[in-house]
Structures are given as C-alpha cells and as structure tokens.
Amino acid sequence: MRTRRFLRTLTTLIAAPLVLAAALVGLGGTPASAATCQGWTGGQPPHLTDGNALEGVAVVSVCDVWAVGLSRSPEKIFHTVIEHWTGGSTWTQVQSPNPGLSNGLTAVTAVSPTNIWAVGFQLADAQGPEQPLIVHYDGTSWNPVSSATVSGGALLRAVSAVGASDIWAVGQTAGSASQTLTLHWDGHAWTQKQSPDPGSVNELTGVSGRTASNAWAVGDYTDGSGLVRTLILHWNGGAWVQVHSDDPSVIANGLDAVTAVSGNDAWAVGNFSNGTAAPLHTLIEHYDGNSWTQVPSPSGAGRTILFGVAFTSATSVWAVGYDSDNRDPITLHWDGTRWQDVPRLPAGSGDDLLAVSASSASNVWAVGGQGSGVSQSFAAPLAGTPGFQVAASMRGGTLYEAGLVNGPTSQSVAPGTSPAVALSTSGGSRIAWSGGNGHLLLIDQAGQRTDTGQAVATGTTPAITALAGGGGYETVFVNAADGLLWQVAANGTVSKVGGGFAVAPGTSPAIAANAAGGFQIAVHAAGTDDLWTIAPSGTGTDTGRKVTTGTSPAITALPGGYEVVFVNAAGGLLWQIPPGGGSRQVGPGYALAAGTSPAIAADSAGGYVIGIAAAGTGNLTTIATSGTGTVTGLTVAAGTSPALASQNGTPVIAVNAAAAGTLTIIDAAGLVQDTSVVLTAGTTPAIAAAGPFVSAFTPVPHVTESRETDAEDAIVAAGLTVGTVTQDFQCRDFAGTVLEQSPASGLVPVGTPVSLTVANANDSHGHKCIIK
Fold this sequence. Notes:
The protein is mainly beta and about 775 residues long. It is about 0% helix and about 50% strand. A 5-stranded antiparallel sheet has the order 1-31-30-29-56, with no helix packed on it. Strand 37 and strand 38 form a beta hairpin. The chain is elongated, with a radius of gyration of 28 Å.
C-alpha cells in the first residue's frame, strides 16, 4: 500500500516515489547488561532543524539503546540521525555518516554492543537516483560500508542480524515499477540476492532472521488488477521463496514489519483497507509452522496502522503504530492467547510509533515522531517504565537493580539474604542490604554506596522506607552484635530502636511510612514469637498474637493507620491487624508455603492487596481487602516470598519465579515480565513504587510544537495540570502552536503544573519564530 507509511512532512524531498519505512529489530532474550544505569526519566532525543523522526530502534540491553532516523534542514535536505541512550533522561546524538547530498536511516540491528548496523538511503545529487546506505558501529564510531550498487537506484527499509556474519537488509528498487531488494552480509561483503517480484510494483519493508536457513521478509505488491496484496518471502538457506499470506481485503493490504520467534512461530503486522475512502485497519498475521493466517487485533474506527513488532517470548509480543485520525499512539500486546490494546502513552499526544525493539520482557522501547506540526523525534520504554524500583540478589550473590535503575552493581550480597528497596516522591531510590562483609550497606540511584559499619544478623534482611515530603529514608535491621532491632535514621544516625527489641532468629523487620511523615515497624519478637509494632518514638506494642517460626510480618500505611499481616502460629493461616486494632483471619483462610512470608501494599481505594506463595502449590496468590483471593498462575520459587508495592494505587509484584529461578515482575497493567535475570536460590526480590498516599511521580510529556489543545490534553492524560499559558506575539505563522514548556522533561510529582508559551496570531511585526 503505497501511502500507508510516512513521516508526515519529512518525505517531501525524496525524488523517487518511495515512502520511508519504519522498521523493527527484535533481539529476543538478550541477557541483562553487566553495567548499571539510571532508568529512563522522561527525557527525549534532541530536537533538530526543521523536523526529525526516529524510524528504527535496537535495544541491546537495559543500559544500551540505539535509535536511527533522519532530520530535515531548512533547505529541505535530509541528514541521518543516530541517537544513543545509556541511562537517565539524556539521549546523546552521535555523529553519523552523510555521504550523499541527502541521506536517511530507516532501521538498525545489533549483533553486540560493539557491532551494530543501520540502513537507509543516500542521494548523491538532486537528480538522483538514491542508492542504499549502510553504516556500521564498531564500538567507537559509525562509518559507511560499501554495499551493492543497484541500477536505477534503491532504498533499504529494514535490517536484521542472525549473527556477525549473517545479516539481511531489505527494501526495493527506485521508480514507479519497483522490485524487491534483498542484500546479505557474510562477514566480508554485502551482496545482492535474487528475490521474487510477483507484481508490477513490489516492496519489502520488514525482515527478521533466526538462523542461516530461516529468515522472513514482508511487504506488499500490486497485482495485475491493480490491487495491493501482502507479500511474504521466506529464506530457506538457498533462496528467497514467496509464501502464501492471508489478505483480509480485496482492495489493499500491506505488511510493514515481521519478527521470527522460532522456526514455527512468527508475527507480521501492517494494515488493510476496503477502499480509498475506507478506514485503515490493523493487520496482524501469524505463522504456526505451516501457514500464515490473520489473527484478530484491536483496531480503531479511523486510520489505524501498525508499523513495528518485536517479541520477548512466545507469550509476549509487542506491536506498535498509531491512529492518524485521533493522533493516538497504538501499543498492542500478545499474551499467548490474544492481542490486547495496552496503552502505554497518553492518548492525543501526537506520538507516532514507528518501531519497537526488546532485549527482555522488562526492557521494551518504541520510537517514532511526535508533534502536530513539524515532526520531532520520540522515544519511550513500553516495559520497565519509571514508577518502580526492584532490587534482588543475582546468581553469584551480586546486587541487581531493575526499574528506575537497572543492572548489576558489582556489590556482593551476604548468602541467604535479600535486599530491601525504597522509592522517594522525587524519583530517587535507596537500597539496603547485608553485604558480603556482613555490614549493612546503602546505595542510592546514582550508585553512591555507604557502608554503615554495622553488622547485620546472619540470614536476616533489613527493611527501608521513604518518608513523605522528601524526609529521607528510614532503615531498620537486626544487629548481629546483640540480636536487637536497630535503625539508621533519615539524618544518618545509627541507634538501637527504643529500649531494645529482640527479633526472632532468621526473621526480618518490616517498616512502612505514612503521608504525615511518620512510620511504623513490625517485628517477630524473639523468645515469645509475639508480633510487635513499634512507633517512631521507640514505643512498642505487643499484639499478643504468635507468629509462625521462621516467618516475618508485613506492613503498609493506610489512610486511617497501618495494616499488618502475618502467619499465625496457631493455625498456620494468614492473619491481619487492621488500623483500628484487634486481629482476625484474612478471608476464608489462606495457608502459606512453608518458610514464606506475606507481602502487602495499599491500593488507590483506601484498601490493600496482599501477596502470598500458597501452601502446597507455591502459586502466587493476591488477596483483596474483601478477603477474595486470585491465583495468578505464576509459581514462586520454594522458600521465597513475593514482594509487593503500589504504583499509583495499583499493585506491582516481583518474585523469584520457580520455572527458571528468574526475577519476574507483574507490572501495573498486569503484564508478566520475565527479566531473564537468574536470582540466587532461596532469595526474595524487593520492589518499591510510588504509593497512593505518598505523591506519585510521572514523566513530563513533550508538547512543544503541538497545538495548544493537544498539548493540554497530553498534560492532563499524564496526570499533570496545565499551568500558566503565556501568549507570544512574535510567531504569527505558528499561531496556536506551543513554543515552549516548563518543565520540559523529567519526572515530577503527579499534579505538577506545566506552563506553556503559545504563539498568538495577532502579530503584525513579522518577527522570526523561535521554538525551544
């Protein structure tokens, strides 16, 4: 379908009637990086010249994301754009080759962090024709690589690496009767391979290689009747062969991207239409090892288009695009059973998602363009987004972080212990754990480590909470010297809690902060096995309830006080102590797996959610305030407990999954994300998020160059408010367009006002417009 893909105003210069492609790169289950990086905080790639957009993305690891595209100069000349994200809010524009008069990049793929390829086009002069452009990154710089010269010109639109010496790039030749183009890298040179051309006009827009004898390429062709059909080609190790595809329309069909999960599992996405004036609908096709068939997919009433697809497993596939009528980004997710619309970006934000890539289920990125006027680059994670922080002990006893900060920290964790984590209202985080030296260690989101010099009791885990209003962090732990409960106050003072509270061997304290700046501690007392709660003053209260040997309580702050849950020694069932005091069994009676403890977090309705590993099965079960339990279908590793937090009032869960012993997260949307990070056997991860009673934080959307009404909609959709709107009378030609915003990016508390400067039409002076 010749008009289905475009970058709004950016494609007007191309001499041949080719439409620039968005592309996908799927890297599957790439292991997590060995480095630690600050998680994404809402920052966007730099805005360039007269417009720019990103068309391809390659996620190498949690700390390493590359995006490519093109920018347009005021002289209407295209230049390549390469952006690199290594953590935090900043994308870095990297110097990129521009060998021709006009150049652009459409796709990128990564073999390794030091072996990355990008493809596109180059135009030697205004008369053309364009030729393929291939550039390579060797870990130091990007450089052009010679490719086969195609008579009459050509454009590359997708690239996929099977290995260092097996890479495919596809596209089409120039002109009104284009033919498919397939180029192959064998480790030494790029050569053109023959590929079928079933129609009068043929193009390839997506490619995905799995093995030397299994690669797929997709696109479309125009048949003898002038109808546009989907085109699917398969590389069998010796030749490209056309494979039958499922066309839902008798008028126009097209595929834009493909990802091969395995030899008998592949997905392709695009769109179809039943007429020139008819809406465009999303199109998703699946290969099951025998044939390609259409699979039902969510689609809007207008022009809804899918441009990219990437997998992390057979039960986790992402597809992205946009609704051009409503200017809404589209993010669809396959959970092994069906495709669902899983919104990850604000509706009406004007974000056009053109490509998606993933290195794991918790590290998925999409890129494209944004803005209702001149396009600007856009990039955002779809999974592993800000809002939570996870800490865990990796196999080998190394501290691992996921969420706002990602990766191993090269810090050792004491055997048989787990870390604790807290998240502040400003987006900062702190982890507390017993290090390899047995000391209580603290580390913040910047990687600043503090050794308190205090020894933690063997086999116990500290607890930490962030105090409201930026009051710092309160940490409690069992001191190895005396077996008593100690604390590290927000001001850094280390002291014994109250008059001395002995904690049962092998158990750990719990702590929660409320919205008023206070906190409460819950412990399993030594000797008596009684459950105690302790106020900030150090005053303790014996609840009189016995806790099962080897288990620890959990606590969360509610509007009316604190909710404590524990395993009752009397019957081995889950019990609770509500804010009003007293105690009772939770629901009809829930038995926990031996040696495990419950977790609890507040919800947005003033209630709570409890998480347990069920006795007998180890099934992760969540329990609502009403006492109703839900079995998630995820099994928790033996001897470990779930971790639970509230992300803006919605539970997020982290577990050591039994299937592979990997850190697995259930996010606020209910998606299960296996991070592929193997945890130390018998250890429990920790998770923290911005809860409902401590101000949550959210990324500031980029709204400059958007229409004022669209900008205001995006701000409200992000949970923020519209601040002062200032009229600028020096930009008449851009009337109604947002010229400047404050704050421009970053994480801010929910409800923060975003001020706008908007161009006004009542300028009669002809001043030059400056958009910041």
